[in-house]
Write a structure and sequence with these properties.
Layout: E1 2-4, E2 7-9, H1 11-35, H2 45-62, H3 74-95, H4 97-100, H5 104-130, E3 137-141, E4 157-162, H6 169-174, E5 179-182, H7 190-198, E6 202-205, H8 206-214, H9 237-257, H10 259-272, E7 278-284, E8 290-296, H11 321-328, H12 336-342, E9 346-348, H13 355-364, E10 377-379, H14 392-408, H15 411-426
Length: 432
């Protein structure tokens, strides 16, 4: 695992991203050099090829091609390469019309080079992983070696088990391990932990290892004062300014880009069922303060005739015909941009809940109110990692992701979430 700005990324997937980027860059540069005569006089082909390679990586991420255990699935690979081909040609035509108007053969070669670079790089990585390459090896440290040994996972191998008395740097090296995972804090003496670190061997306790490997926090092990060191609770002025500026810029751009869609959706809602176009609902925001959330109305006006909040269910009969479509495509969420512009929400953060649900969930789930130390978001780490939740147990599972975001919040993690949100929308993950 590689730590990037506080967020743990699987080293094999990061290596795959970098390898694909280099492969795409080389292929793009070659095609542009041979297929667009005279273009080098108008644009730096190396810089343009690097831009296209970066876009290719973002597209692959947006279609789920870097999801653990999904990076070689045929349907995702086909979707990613098809979408990538369209976007890459569009970028070329818009930014550099001279290159974009090159021969059809050159454009076809550009698309083919992208598809082949992605496909063959992944085939090579699949073969490497089957041979054990890029699979980290770890040593488990337990108070006693008695008991069953933990099995290997999809992305790491357990090299062996040691006790605090038998653990040494030499033994870890002999096992060809790069990571030591202790059952509990304090099992590895500080002096030995320092020696292991100097040897390039990381030492983690089990809770931290699971958190880094899964992107979830075991909130049962959280200390009462854990928020004091959480990155989300430390709102530094510069980062807050950058995040707020990006929220405003993205919000304005999204409203301008989707304006025709918003008008068409409003007309469809009016024609489909009686009632207002927008749905207003009280939600809990940062610091536990309530605010009014805006969405396109997707249910009948009598959806909660009893006055009590009700979770949505699969094939919910309260959803209108237009409502079903806009919920599947997430169009109903776009009006929340007005909440972002007002400052009640951010683009990325834990999804806001209704006061009635918050009161109920906080009474039975430890640390539930801790998620309110940051602004709620239109999308979030839980939304791109866990399907739609409609129960207390679902809320418990999603909180584990929300608290991970609060603990490791960064602009880099926000970018990953926004890219992953495209995947959620494209494949209609978790819609109801």
């Amino acid at each position: 695992m590689t730590n990037l700005f506080g967020h743990s990324v699987r080293s094999d997937l990061l290596a795959l991203f970098l390898a694909e980027g280099l492969a795409c860059f080389g292929a793009f540069y070659l095609i542009l050099s041979l297929g667009a005569p005279g273009a080098s006089a108008q644009v730096d082909l190396a810089a343009f090829a690097a831009l296209l390679a970066l876009c290719a990586g973002l597209i692959a991420g947006a279609t789920g091609l870097y999801q653990p255990e999904r990076w070689l699935r045929a349907n995702r690979l086909a979707a990613g390469t098809m979408l990538g081909a369209v976007v890459l040609l569009g970028i070329t035509h818009v930014l550099f019309p001279t290159i974009g108007s090159a021969s059809w053969a050159a454009q076809a070669a550009l698309v083919a080079s992208f598809v082949l670079s992605i496909t063959f790089t992944r085939i090579a990585f699949a073969a490497a992983r089957r041979s054990g390459f890029m699979r980290p090896r770890l040593v488990l440290v337990r108070a006693a070696t008695a008991g069953a040994e933990d099995g290997n996972s999809a992305f790491f191998d357990v090299a062996g088990v040691a006790t605090p008395d038998t653990l040494t740097v030499e033994r870890v090296r002999a096992m060809r391990a790069s990571l030591v995972v202790a059952d509990a804090r304090g099992l590895v003496a500080p002096d030995l932990a320092g020696q292991l670190a100097e040897a390039g061997i990381s030492v983690l306790d089990r809770a931290e290892f699971i958190e880094r490997a899964t992107g979830r926090v075991d909130f049962a092990t959280l200390a009462p004062d854990w928020l004091a060191s959480a990155r989300g609770a430390q709102d530094h002025r510069l980062e807050a300014f950058v995040r707020r500026s990006l929220d405003i810029a993205l919000g304005v751009a999204l409203l301008l880009f989707t304006f025709p869609l918003l008008v068409a959706t409003a007309l469809a809602i009016k024609l489909d069922s009686p009632g207002p176009v927008f749905y207003r609902q009280e939600r809990v925001g940062k610091g536990g303060r309530p605010y009014t959330l805006f969405k396109f109305r997707s249910m009948r006006t009598d959806a909660e005739a009893t006055g009590a909040p009700v979770w949505a269910t699969q094939q919910d009969a309260r959803v209108t015909r237009v409502g079903r479509f806009i919920r599947l495509t997430r169009i109903d969420e776009i009006p929340q941009v007005f909440n972002v512009l007002k400052g009640d929400m951010a683009f990325v953060g834990p999804r806001p809940e209704r006061p009635g649900f918050v009161e109920k969930l906080a009474a039975v789930i430890p640390h539930y109110d801790d998620r309110h130390c940051v602004k709620p978001g239109i999308t979030g780490w839980a939304q791109v990692n866990y399907p739609y939740g409609a129960s207390v147990e679902d809320a418990r599972q999603k909180l584990a992701y929300d608290l991970y975001y609060v603990r490791r919040r960064s602009l880099f993690l926000d970018l990953l979430i926004i890219v992953a949100t495209v995947r959620v929308v494209l494949f209609q993950e978790g819609s109801r």
